[in-house]
Amino acid sequence: MSIKWSFQSPKKSGLKLYASLHITCEAFEDEAEFGFSSTIKTAMASPQLIRLGTRGSQLAMWQSNWVKAELEKLGHQVELVRIKTEGDVATGSLAQIGGQGLFTKRLQVALQNREVDLAVHSLKDLPTEDAEGLMIAAIPMRECTNDAFVSSKFDRFDDLPQGAIVGTGSVRRGAQLLHARKDLQIKDIRGNVDTRLKKLDTEGYDAIILAAAGLRRLGWEDRITHDFNEDQLLPAVGQGALGLETRSDDEATVSAVSKLNHPDSFHRAMAERIMLRTLFAGCLAPVGAKTKVVNGQLTLTGAVLSRDGQQKLIAEQTTDAADFKQLGKEVAEALFAQGAEKILRPQ
Questions:
Q1: Which of 47, 62, 115, 249 meets the CB 3.0–4.6 Å disulfide criterion with 110?
Q2: Which of 125-129, 157-161, 238-242, 301-305 has the lowest mean pLDDT?
Q3: Which of 298, 265, 229 minimizes the C-alpha distance to 142?
Q4: How many CB atoms within 10 Å of residue 223?
Q5: Which residue pairs, CB below 8 angstroms and at least 24 apart, start in 153-156?
Q6: How far is Cα 13 from Cα 67, in angstroms, rounded to an integer?
Q7: Active site members
């Protein structure tokens, strides 16, 4: 075993001078057997190393590797830490098992326990309630927000025959599809993107609906039969956006991550999330939203539907992008004024 001290100068990011202890154990084939594993990890930890927590799915890894690459371009060291969430092992439908935070809670606990310094979330999966001691430090430029129609049999949604079987794990999508076509059979579908695509071909679905952003990020655009426009199928709150979550007291990581923030994407996604939080609806509710920024003006359109698709409420308002918090609250209040409470929480 050899021990070597090395001193490293501060980077441009303004982080403090630090010393790191490098330990090599070439003589030991199994470091864990001799109790070196945790010692080495502790010794090698440094203020310049950002430990990025991620799920192990193909899409989650793509997203986390993208963030890792962007941070490394800025001169930071990044280590990926895979974390299995409850959503990765649960087998029932999200509606049945209560999917709120299923894909994000374990990552947030790892942040709070200082096991990692940064978590990358698909923002549509992240509950809108604030987690103690945590903050969304950045939302990078948003991908497309559309939902994608995927089918091996039919070219467009309008081509589906009477009684067609459409797969989706989203109550929001199911409600909007039934609002457009009462005759459809909405069948639950679970799994990662690649798993759902396989199920399309093997389990009798006429079509499935997926977020276009995920397919594009994975290079599977050719599986998209056509994109729904946002008026046909209002996207989920935060769809197409990544949420980069840190501890609020970790100034070094917040400073590093905030450089990846895209202001328009941040204002849009946060307005949507505040609307959803004000509705007390949660990310699994039949609530859709779309936003746009034009000349500094932010427009938010929100919708609440009954699960059977028979009722649909819509509200829309525009304000300065800097007032995104107030905009989200006002659109939610406009939906309440139309009767959203009775739809979201029927007696």
A1: 115
A2: 125-129
A3: 265
A4: 17
A5: 153/206, 153/207, 154/206, 154/207, 154/225, 155/225, 155/226, 156/225, 156/226
A6: 17
A7: 125
Domains of the chain: 2-44 (no CATH), 54-141+241-261 (3.40.190.10), 147-227 (3.40.190.10), 263-337 (3.30.160.40)
Quote the DSSP letter at residue 14.
-
Yes or no: say if 279 and 304 are a contact pair by the CB < 8 Å rule. Answer: yes
Angle between the N-to-C axes of helices 324-337 and 263-278, in degrees from 0 to 180, rounded to the nearest 10: 30
- Pick from 80, 73, 11, 70: nearest CA to 50: 80
From CA 173, how far away is CA 211, in angstroms rounded?
10
Segment 198-203 shows an average pLDDT of 93
User: What is the chain's Cα-based Rg?
Assistant: 22
Mean pLDDT of 95-103: 54
| One-character DSSP codes across 184-251 | -EEE---S-HHHHHHHHHHS--SEEEEEHHHHHHTT-GGG-SEEPPTTTSPPPTTTT-EEEEEETT-H
Q: State yes or no: pLDDT of 278 exceeds 80.
A: yes
Sole residue written with tokens 């939203």: 289
Q: Compute the Cα dihedral for 309, 314, 228, 264 and give only its sign.
A: negative
- The CA–CA distances, whole Å, from 39 to 36, 188, 199, 269 equal 5, 46, 45, 41
Scan for tokens 């190393």, then name that residue. Answer: 49
Burial of 240 (0-12, 13-18, 19+ CB in 10 A): buried
d(CA 10, CA 15): 6
